[in-house]
Structure formats: C-alpha cells, structure tokens
Design brief:
By secondary structure, this protein is mainly beta. It contains 2 helices and 13 strands. It is globular, with a radius of gyration of 22 Å. The chain starts with a helix and ends in a 5-residue tail after the last strand.
C-alpha cells in the first residue's frame, strides 16, 4: 500500500512539474483594435463643458494603405502599429506597460502607455470585452499634464475617450468624454 501511494504521489508531482503556468490573456493586434475599411462608421456622444453632441466618424477613402476619415484624419497601419499623421495611436506589441513617445511639435512631446489589456467596456453602443486602455500624457501650461484615456475594443474600434487635467499627481474631473453610441463595420483589414 505504501509503495502504491508513493507511486501515485510521484506521478502526480511529475505531472505538476511538467505543467506550465497559464499565460496572461494576449491582446489583439492594432489591426483588430481599430478596424480600417472604407465605409466603417462610428457615432460618439461627446460631452464637453456641460454640452453634449453627436460626432460621426466614417472612413471615406483608402489609397496605398492610407485611410482617410470624414474629418480629414489619416490612418496608417504598419508593422509597428496604428498611426495618424503625427503619432502612433497603438504600438505593437500591445501589452501592459508598453510605452512610446511622439514628438508632435517643436516643444510638444506626448507619451503613451498601454495601461490595461483585457478590460471590459460598457458604453451606449454595448458591452465589449477584451479591450485595451491606452493612456496618453502631454505637458500643458503651468506644470499641468493633459491626460487622455482611450479604450479600444477588438472588432469595434475606439469606444471611449476621456481627458483630464492632472496637477501634482492629482487627476481633476473629466474635461472631455466621448463614448460610442453606434457603429457599422463594412469590412476590415
């Protein structure tokens, strides 16, 4: 009986020794977090200074891998991530803590970091899982920092943007809030 118990315990320990830790959930690639295709359309409710209005964003054209929306914003998806004309919006690999900087002017540098991967987001357009939250920071006037949190969800795109002013490490009330209320995807690359 003792031999049999020792054998069973040995086999159980050997099985555990060969077990691998469960990896954290992998984040989707930038192409899944911001689907680009002519005809894709997102409608947001924007709140700023007590006012509320709807904002519609639609991809209207594509040439040589550059997508242009109805506001004239240009998006390019390349091996390093998703960018507009001035900055990377999402950098690969998308993983918690990933950070990058963008020089957007002679005296303006923005810094970005992936703040969270695998979050859920509840917005008027619905409940979305597996989302990525990116935090952007830009020094502002008199020692303040402009902070923007952007949440991207796979197969949907940008679902929320919230901006704050931060002073001495203390975040103020939201200044600008943009939440997805509806979307339609014609296709995606």
């Amino acid at each position: 009986m003792t031999f049999r118990l020792a054998t069973v315990l040995s086999l159980a320990l050997a099985a555990c020794a060969g077990a691998r830790p469960v990896p954290p959930p992998s984040a989707p690639r930038a192409s899944k977090l911001f689907p680009l295709a002519v005809g894709n359309r997102w409608t947001y409710r924007v709140r700023f200074l007590g006012a509320s209005q709807l904002l519609s964003v639609a991809i209207e054209s594509e040439a040589a891998g550059e997508f242009v929306d109805n506001r004239g914003t240009r998006y390019i998806l390349d091996h390093a991530g998703l960018r507009d004309a001035q900055r990377y919006l999402i950098r690969e690999p998308v993983q918690p803590g990933k950070s990058w900087r963008s020089v957007i002017g002679l005296d303006a540098t923005e810094s970005y970091r992936v703040a969270a991967v695998g979050e859920s987001a509840d917005v008027p357009a619905g409940h979305f899982a597996g989302c990525v939250r990116i935090e952007g920071r830009e020094p502002s006037h008199q020692g303040a920092i402009q902070l923007a949190e952007q949440t991207y969800c796979p197969g949907v795109g940008l679902v929320r943007v919230t901006t704050y002013e931060e002073r001495e490490g203390v975040r103020g009330a939201p200044q600008w809030t943009e939440e997805l209320v509806a979307f339609r995807l014609a296709g995606a690359r």
